[in-house]
Structure formats: structure tokens, C-alpha cells
Amino acid sequence: MSLAITGKTAIITGAAHGIGLAIARHFIDRGAHVMCADIDEAKLNAEFGDEARNDGPVRIFAGDLCQKLTVNNLLSATVDAYDRIDILINSARAFAPCDPLEPIQDVLEDMLRQNMMGALRLSQMTAKRMISLAEKENRTTGEVGTIINVSTLAAQRAQPELLAYSIACAAQDQATRSLAVALAPYRIRVNGVSFASVMSASLQAALKENGDWREAIVAGTPMGRIAPPSELAETVQYLASSGAGFVTGQVIQVDGGRSVIDPIAVPVY
């Protein structure tokens, strides 16, 4: 089974922080051409600015990917740099708690817009670009592209204080399955990676304010630890590689077994 991604072109959103940053670094280290996208331009420059100044495997793109024009500009910048798009990884996420007994319209709309609608639009527009490039190059066999969505266990667990966030994560997982079926005839695979007990940027920030949560998370995770985001990146690489060539429509749990039991009353970040 080949897990190679050398020479492939990947767009990775949320690449300036946490899990997105870990995935971007992982793909760069394994020889992929990576367009690192994030709304945080300062952090993008701090992480990748020196590398992106060369005509090498790294480029950066700053902008609000919930805007259609910005998405078009991202896709054009990627094709201009590398002539193709093989992989899209939607790892940008926004997190906000809410009071489940109060109207949540604003919070829900924001969570859906940032965690589901933005990724869905980017996936649709990227798929169209992948198909167009394949037709232009007369690629009639082989994989045209792959799309990977990063989600969390919140999509499956009822935590009232995360009502809006959980709905958005669940919607993203369903979008993964629906797009997988829609894009299969075009030879584009769509999968998801759902995580828990992984040191995301939001979990790291939460643990600074709630240090006692660490013990609860570790105790409630069968494998007895919180994983670094690099372990999630390994699964993303598998889904992006030819080794997963017959895998589509799946949301893979990367959580140390937490989804099997999950007795923790700690929010899933």
C-alpha cells in the first residue's frame, strides 16, 4: 500500500494554527506542494513566510474563505503556482459555546457558515476546478482528486453547551458523505477525519483555563493520553494517498477510542 504524496498539490485551510498547521507541516515534509490558507495573515507569514518567498513547495494565501471571490482567488493562485490541484483539506474550524436555553440563531448561523458552508463551497468549487483540469489534460483514467474534511466528536455527542457547534460538525460530516456520492463518477474521493483527545489549538487554549480537564480527558480516553496533532496528520495523509484509493464517504475517528465510551463531561474541541 502506497502512502506517498510526493509531488501532489494540496490546499490546506486553517494552516496557520493547531491541526491545520500540523497537517501542512506533515505534507511539506513528505514532499507535497502545499498552498497554506488561513484568515490570519500574520501567523501565516510567521510560520511559512520564509519558505513561501522561494519558488518551492510552499505558498501562502490569506483571506476569508467564506467569500466566493476569495475562494476563486485561492484556486487560481494554486493553479498558477503548481498547474494542478490534487488534494483539498478543509481543516479550518471555528469554535463557540452557547446557552442551549437561549436563542442561538446568531451563533448557529456563524458556526454553520464557518465550519460547514465555507468548507462546502470550497469543496464544490475545488471539485469543479479539478474536473476542468482533468478534462483539459485529457486524464481519462486514474484519480482526479481527493477532498478531506476535518471534524470532531462533537458531531456525535450531545453536549448542550456546544449545541450550535455540534450541529455544524454533524452537518459537515453529512456533507462529506453526500459529496462523496456526488463526486464518485468524476473520480474524486471525499472523506472526513473526526477527532477527539487531540491537542488542537482550541483544546490547548481551554486547558490553560481549565487545567483539571486534562486528567478527565486522559482518564476517559481508552488509550490514556492526548495525542499530538501530528498523529491526525498521518491519517489525513493516508486518505490523501493512493493507499486509500477505494475509500470514500467515510468519516474516520481519530480519538484513542474515546468515541466508543466517551463518559467525559468535557467539551470536545
From TrEMBL:
Ranges that cross the membrane: none
SUPFAM superfamilies the record matches: NAD(P)-binding Rossmann-fold domains
Keywords: Oxidoreductase
Pfam family, one: adh_short_C2
Gene3D superfamilies with a match to the protein in the record: NAD(P)-binding Rossmann-like Domain
InterPro entries in UniProt: NAD(P)-bd_dom_sf, SDR_fam
GO MF term list: oxidoreductase activity
Family designation: Belongs to the short-chain dehydrogenases/reductases (SDR) family.
Protein name (record): Oxidoreductase
